[in-house]
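WP5 quarterly update. Target: HIT domain-containing protein. Source organism: Paracoccus pacificus. Length: 124 aa.
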Amino acid sequence: MPTYDDQNIFARILRGEMPNDTVAETDHTLAFRDIRPQAPVHILVIPKGKYVSYDDFAANAPDAEIVDFHRTLARVAAQAGVSLDKGKGFRAITNAGENGVQEVPHFHMHILGGAPMGRMICRD
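Structure tokens (predicted):
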């Protein structure tokens, strides 16, 4: 597992060094609007702990952090009007490492919705 980089943009947001458009915050999780939205609803949900990727988070985070993260994500999707009980659905995406085209080395989940998302990957 790569070493966590304390200077990544999400670490800086969590320390209050960078602004963000907060949607929800708990003791363990922060959700905020993406600065370059790829859909009408594009929210990032991040744990406050130092996890590089989803597999790092799933393997190493305490149960309370894992539960809080997923419950916060569900609450944010509902508040944004994209959950199945409030809207027409959403896509949740996380990228890991070079082949996953991860841009920020801090685990984060994208919630994308508000319009049809199309196929997950383009087939050649």
